[in-house]
Design goal:
- The structure is a single chain.
- This protein is mainly alpha-helical.
- 52% of the residues lie in helices and 9% in strands.
- The protein has a 3-stranded antiparallel β-sheet with strand order 1-2-3.
- Helix 1 runs parallel beside helix 2.
- The longest helix is centred in the middle third of the chain and has 28 residues.
- It starts with 5 loop residues before the first helix and ends in an 8-residue tail after the last helix.
Length: 107
Amino acid sequence: MANLDKDAVIAAFTEAYKKANGNAPSIESKSGWYSVDGGKNMRLAQLQEMTESLTSGSSVSAEKKEAKAKAKPVKKKTSKASKPGFSVKDFWAEKLKAEAPGATLPR
């Protein structure tokens, strides 16, 4: 792993972020960890990877997201019909009627 220049990486990330989002990021650093716009903390190498992804795939990924959203139809949830099968509640009701015809069902 090569040694990264902190100032160069942050400057490159700031440029790429401005091009992609239109405004400058707020980068907070604390003991080797960097937080961009109050988000998740990351190391300098991850910041460099984000720079590469912003410069190479920002327009491509936006187009893919739009195309995926258009191509995916909205599915409606259907309610499942209850199957006529074994029911514990019905079983106990029948059992009580058989043992004591005048008894009431439990709560």
